[in-house]
Hints:
4 copies of one chain form a homotetramer. Chain A has 130 residues and is mainly α. Chain A contains 5 helices and 2 strands. The first copy, chain A, has helices at residues 11-24, 37-44, 48-60, 78-103, 108-129; strands at 64-67, 71-74. In chain A, a hairpin with a 3-residue loop joins strand 1 and strand 2. In chain A, helix 1 packs across helix 3, helix 1 (11-24) crosses helix 4 (78-103) and helix 2 (37-44) crosses helix 3. The first copy, chain A, starts with 10 loop residues before the first helix and ends with a helix. The structure holds a DNA duplex (15 and 15 nucleotides).
Amino acid sequence: MRIDPNSHVPIYLQIADYIREAIAAGVYRPKETLPSLRTLALELVVNPNTVQRAYEELEREHLVRSRKGVGLFVAGEAAESARAKSQAAVREHFVRGIRAGQAARLSPERIRAVFQEAWRDLHAEAEQRT
Amino acid sequence: MRIDPNSHVPIYLQIADYIREAIAAGVYRPKETLPSLRTLALELVVNPNTVQRAYEELEREHLVRSRKGVGLFVAGEAAESARAKSQAAVREHFVRGIRAGQAARLSPERIRAVFQEAWRDLHAEAEQRT
Amino acid sequence: MRIDPNSHVPIYLQIADYIREAIAAGVYRPKETLPSLRTLALELVVNPNTVQRAYEELEREHLVRSRKGVGLFVAGEAAESARAKSQAAVREHFVRGIRAGQAARLSPERIRAVFQEAWRDLHAEAEQRT
Amino acid sequence: MRIDPNSHVPIYLQIADYIREAIAAGVYRPKETLPSLRTLALELVVNPNTVQRAYEELEREHLVRSRKGVGLFVAGEAAESARAKSQAAVREHFVRGIRAGQAARLSPERIRAVFQEAWRDLHAEAEQRT
DNA sequence: GTGGTCTAGACCACT
DNA sequence: GTGGTCTAGACCACT
Lengths: 130, 130, 130, 130
């Protein structure tokens, strides 16, 4: 994972998004512990406070539960719930893109073509890594 | 246009995006004047300084030219250039959506389905307004 | 003459500089009339008020005298005086350049070389026009 | 450094010029931090916003990088680049001086003499400070 | 009227 | 503490 410090999305939300996606992807499974604040902070080169806020965000979403002195655990039904939330986030990005295209009066065909192109490029990219 | 004061995107960039799209859409044509700082500020209920930052951004992109004491003008080749920039922005949204979907291990079919659904919903919305 | 609307020097001062140089150069001679406000404003594509301010500046410097209902005249000893002032302005530009070079710790040789180069380029330019 | 509030050059550009020269001179070296917005604002007795505009300008020139909550840093290749930009600025001053001299029909010898004289005076000045 | 610059002071995200 | 954004309001040059 890479943090983008120039993004307008606050870093703590970028981290929360990342963990949420990891839970959705099954990287972290229910009842497993998540990386500690300090571990993750070191890895991402951010302040532990920032990671802390990300975890707070996830607790608010009931994806994560903290047990004092023990650590942070993935909640029971978290995977399901995280998948739903991630999917909503994906949709939100698409909606923004389509709206921006409509506002600029790009033709529907053009907008779909832009999507296809992005799709192909990202697919090609993913293939290469394999 | 509506400003979202809670967005992570700064207001001045929201305004710049909006004007860029309007130029791309042909709402403002080359050599025409754009709304004055004060007029637009009143309309959007923001401070004139904030509108000015938006226009500065567009001037840096060579979409707009300012003439002291006269007003702001759409630059010569602005429409073309604005369209290219708006399309790049659309693509960026789509890329973010696709990446987020891949990170959450949504299946390619799922991701495409999310796009189709968003597309249909926004289209239906647009129809209704007609 | 060309006005540079993007210069930080106000337009009225650019105009005053231009007329002062013209008087120093002998383009306008003592007792001759200067172009009228409207004529010059049309030629430079600026507002007559702006030309007016330039003339006021020159009157303050006693290079120009206005006679109501008649026009503006070059003052008696104007050429001499304008030459002195123009020379002071030239010097001021050079001082700024040298100071900026020293601040950036360019070597004295480097600074002189920059001057020589600018000199040659402007000379070549002047030759070509001949 | 001294700000000239009566100059036609906006304060924020005076500050940007000053910092650029300091980077060119090696006063601030790559990866080092620059004075914070508030510190420099206090020192120069200007508003922090004004200092920020200066730093924005330098960031646009890729001489400076900002990290939220951390500080401002001199960019990697900044010294080289700053030196080139400062030299261009020096040249610009000289060009203006030469052009003004030509416009006033000062003889080439006269113009060069003015440069020599300014050079000697500034050198003498520099010596005295030693 | 128009755009450009500046101050004073606030609040936010991040260290 | 740090940088980034925003408001309210002033004054300037120019039309």
